[in-house]
Amino acid sequence: MIKFIATLFLLIPTYSHSQSFSDLLERVETLNQKQHHIGHNKIFVVDYSKKITEKRFYLLDLKNKKIIYRTHVGHAWRSGRGKPKRFSNKPNTNKSSLGIYRIGKKYKSNYFDNAYRLHGLSKTNNNALKRSIVIHDAPVDYVEDPSGMILSGLVEQEQLYSDGCFTFFPWDFKDVMRFFDTTELLYAIN
């Protein structure tokens, strides 16, 4: 019974200051010194100030000033458990990087059917291509129809941790891929 209650607690949305559109945009602007998003109506934001068990991946509509979509996204296991605290742009560190990314071409690798290359546009992530930092789904193929309880259990079991990539549950990644035609910038903030 205690585990069930704890699982339900994880499913209750947390409404903190960083989930409001204006706060996310203000934090993006701090990072956005070169105004990369000018001319873009939509951007992705990963809010690493939140734990991996929280929905911290956002699609922002800049024109209409609203959050269109949000879901879970992973981070590098060497950046810290729960919430990333250590970031790096150096090869072979297996840590997440902060900064602005441009989403590149889709490709098929030996490990993932759908992955997207990332080009780092900031000093803190300009080695993204060299480090093979990409967007892809997590290898969670044994779950067919996840309920909220299963989802929180998977997050607790560390299914979303990566070597630096932005990872999604397969069912969320299908949703996220729909937006790649209209959105090409990703901001990783903390």
Question: How would you characterize the overall build of this protein?
Answer:
With about 190 residues, the chain is α+β, with helices and mostly antiparallel strands. It is built from 5 helices and 8 strands. The protein has helices spanning about 1-10, 20-30, 130, 150-155, 170-175; strands at about 40-45, 55-60, 65-70, 100-105, 115-120, 135, 165-170, 185-190. It has an 8-stranded mixed β-sheet.
Keywords:
single chain; 190 residues; alpha+beta; eight-stranded mixed β-sheet; 5 helices
Quick rundown:
This protein is of the alpha+beta class. It has helices at 2-11, 21-31, 128-131, 148-156, 170-177, and strands spanning 42-47, 57-61, 66-71, 99-107, 115-120, 134-137, 166-168, 185-189. It has five helices and eight strands.
Sketch the topology as an H/E string, one letter per element: HHEEEEEHEHEHE
Helix percent band: 10-25%
Portion in strands: 15-25%
N-to-C terminal Cα separation, in Å?
A: 35 Å
Mind summarizing the main beta sheet? 8 strands, mixed
- Which regions contain 5 or more consecutive residues with pLDDT less than 50? 1-18, 141-145
